[in-house]
Amino acid sequence: MPSLPPSLRPMTRVVATVVAAFVLAGPAAASSLPKPVLEGDYKLQRVGAGKLSWLGQPIYDASLWTTQGRFSGYSKDEPVALSLWYRRHFSRDTLLRITDTAWKRLDEVPAERRQRWLAILRSFWSDVQPGDNVTTVVVPGQATRFYDARGFMGQIDDPDFGPAFLAIWLDSRSVVADLRVQLLGLDHSTARR
Questions:
Q1: For 154, what's the count of Cα atoms within 13 Å in the CB-facing half-sphere?
Q2: Total-model pTM
Q3: Which alpha helices (H) appear in the chain, and where do they start and end?
Q4: Could you tell me the domains of the chain?
Q5: How many Cα atoms are found within 13 Å in the side-chain-facing hemisphere of 125?
Q6: What is the pLDDT of residues 81-96, one digit of tens each?
């Protein structure tokens, strides 16, 4: 097989990098957890997975995980994880603003508490790029921990935070209703329950 001319070799690396980015951010990503979570003591099984798009543009691939492989609410000491594989760039401030807007829409978290939680998130969240992962692990009654592909990012110790945060995706009033159905492994006829 003939080798490429030297002038085209750098282009080959660029194409390979772009293809790798799409593979990492593609559908298979929603079926996986980042290595630091897999290496933890959580022993998680996937409940469901789906994609979030806005006006036809992919935002992220998401998957929900529990120790039983199903979700019917929070059980003491049973971890629940939500893993998001981003398909586009978001600044930390945009992620915080989206989170606050979602909480306001659900109207469950008082403003003072939202602001306290957002300040903590601001201390360890960062911008995300296509292919980045952020996984939230909630153990009811305990701290909620955040991980990325490099490891532990930070945590919020308030035991009420985790269920309130995951409500953005799992509450029946969620703005991402179609994704909620996929995450919970439901069919559309049972989705609003």
A1: 12
A2: 0.81
A3: 9-24, 35-38, 92-106, 111-124, 161-170, 177-183
A4: 9-190 (3.50.70.10)
A5: 22
A6: 999 999 999 999 999 9
